[in-house]
Amino acid sequence: MTAPTLPNSELAVMKLLWRKGRLTARQILELLYPDTSRPQHGTVQRLLQRLEAKGFVTRDRGLGVNLFSPAVSRESYASGQLESLVDRLGGGSLVPMVTRLVEDNKLSRAEIEKLRRILEEEK
Fold first, then answer.
1. How far is CA 105 from the centre of its chain?
2. Are 47 and 10 in contact (CB under 8 A)?
3. pLDDT of residue 51
4. Among candidates 83, 117, 115, 80, which has minimal Cα distance to 101?
5. Per-residue model confidence as pLDDT tens digits over 22-65
6. Distance (Å, rounded) from C-alpha 64 to C-alpha 11?
């Protein structure tokens, strides 16, 4: 079973955690809302609670302050989302999607060469 798709607000928190590793709620608040005049502490707490309930975030209470870490890697989440997209739009096949990316010039020459090398190694 693939992981659920995260709403943009939760994904923003996950991107911070994937980039930084471990953060306190206050650090997340300061990074997400650096210039806000409205307090957003409750919003960040709710986002972290939802992410923890979904299994995306772990909470370390051992240092007197809660430290939040990603429980799911960026790669794992992206892979699950890609599988879901392929199932929904590609009928289970990635070929039509990759073909469209190539035909629409959405892949660079270097990316195409990398795909070619990967496919050759699989033979």
1. 25
2. yes
3. 97
4. 115
5. 999 999 999 998 887 777 888 999 999 999 999 999 999 888 88
6. 26
80 burial (CB, 10 Å; 0-12 / 13-18 / 19+) is: middle
Q: In what order do the strands lie in the sheet with 67-70?
A: 23-24, 67-70, 57-60
How far, in Å, CA of 119 to CA of 72, rounded? 27
Check: CB of residue 101 under 8 Å from CB of residue 82: no
Residue 39 tokens read as 């307090």
Indicate the SS3 state at residue 74.
helix
> Residue-wise over 4-19: b if at least 16 C-beta within 10 A, else e?
eebeeebbebbebbbe
Count other C-beta atoms under 10 Å from residue 27's C-beta.
Answer: 16
Instruction: Spell out the alpha helix ranges (H) of the chain.
Output: 8-20, 25-32, 41-53, 74-89, 95-103, 109-122
SS3 state of residue 70? strand
